Amino acid sequence: xxxxxxxxxxxxxxxxxxxxxxxxxxxxxxxxxxxxxxxxxxxxxxxxxxxxxxxxxxxxxxxxxxxxxxxxxxxxxxxxxxxxxxxxxxxxxxxxxxxxxxxxxxxxxxxxxxxxxxxxxxxxxxxxxxxxxxxxxxxxxxxxxxxxxxxxxxxxxxxxxxxxxxxxxxxxxxxxxxxxxxxxxxxxxxxxxxxxxxxxxxxxxxxxxxxxxxxxxxxxxxxxxxxxxxxxxxxxxxxxxxxxxxxxxxxxxxxxxxxxxxxxxxx
Length: 267
Known about the structure:
Helix content is 16%, strand content 43%. By secondary structure, it is an alpha+beta fold. The strands form three sheets. The protein has an eight-stranded mixed β-sheet with strand order 4-5-6-3-7-10-9-8, covered by helices on one side. It has an eight-stranded mixed β-sheet with strand order 12-13-14-11-15-18-17-16, with helices on one face.
């Protein structure tokens, strides 16, 4: 269900239905669940409830009773870094996963059922950046946006935008709006005329130890105060805070090293 601008709109039960291609969920995989809950609970005011178990122990982070994110536990035998992963809505996750494959991407996990909450797949684009596909059976997985502690934006950092943007356009039906600049390789991907995500090409400046990756931005009431809180809770500040055209932004990491961004959006 959408409003006049095509944005997700609450159903009668308070859930939200996301049009296909819309970022609809973010999930964090870590090794220490209890310590991670303490960090994000103090930073964002989240509470936690057990969630579906498609990949092992998993909790939903709630804000005022509405789910805003998920946290799962990495298998001890998998040497993967703690990382946030965005999920994009699909009406048929199996079909979307096949399109990912046909366009040069990789399906790493699934598609599989997440109990009775929906169906998901973890995939990567041709450059190696990991993201998720979510097909819900309960209206939606998230129902609160625009408030401190909720995801505000997801951005892909990669080598170049031209081919990568075309991949996402084919998979999700986006239109692209490139930035016309000799110094900046950036494309905003739009769905029904509204911006849904961005792709930033860094070329050889992309850190080789990270490779192409997605970054989730979370809304905060005050970026500087939130940065102080991150440090107090044992996290790291990787960049900023700095003022941008979209608000005051800082890049940070939690105590396990999972990177994310804080943004106080411009009034």
